[in-house]
Amino acid sequence: MRIETVVAAEARESRGKNEARRVRVSGRIPAVIYGAFQDPRAISVNPKDILRIIHSKTGHNSIFDVEVAGAEKTPVIVADEQYHPVKGTLMHIDLKRIDLTRKLRVSVPVHVSGDAKGVKQQGGVLDIVTKTIEIECVPDDIPNQFDVDVTELMIGTNIRVSDLPVKEGVRVLTAPEAVIAHVVGIREEAAPEAAAAVPEPEVAKKGKKEEAAPAAAAPEKGKKK
What we know:
Elements: E1 2-11, H1 17-25, E2 29-35, E3 38-45, H2 47-54, E4 63-68, E5 72-83, E6 90-97, E7 104-113, H3 117-120, E8 125-128, E9 132-137, E10 146-149, E11 158-160, E12 171-172, E13 179-184, H4 192-196, H5 201-217
Parallel strand pairs: 1-4, 2-6, 7-10
Antiparallel strand pairs: 1-3, 2-3, 4-5, 5-6, 7-9, 8-13, 9-12, 11-13
């Protein structure tokens, strides 16, 4: 989605580990702009500006402007980022130029709201199956998210991709029959009295031995002591 944000960038005349280290020491990070049938350009940006966009509501689908001092101002989207394996700090960013007249393929998150009646009234469990929807459209038509209300879902019912309201010009690439959310029942455990009705083999055998013991111990009739 297009956002009104301009990230200031500085051109880098050289590349390599030493140059990248120098850039990071200055508080910036190395980056590259590419795409739109133009040559790649090495730049540096403030990592705080990029992280603010990545962590925003539109996230990686944000289309914003990068302005390179004395060179170009172009709409871009975050194509890739690299983080420090231990510290977790942003180390490098790839920015892809965007032609606002050409269609893009992006993944849009699904936001689920509401309390399903099948959970509250029937004791079922809400299962979220599909969390992102892939679409194709021009940049200005990319939605922030797809909103799904699960309030009316009962056990055995579902909401599919084909049920989503999609504006004209947006083509959904995810299979229309894919389930987004449904309510499933919980299997009941076997009744405890049913298990108690089965006699334990050891107890039954023990009872037979106790009954046989007195009969074996009885003296024979007519035998002299």
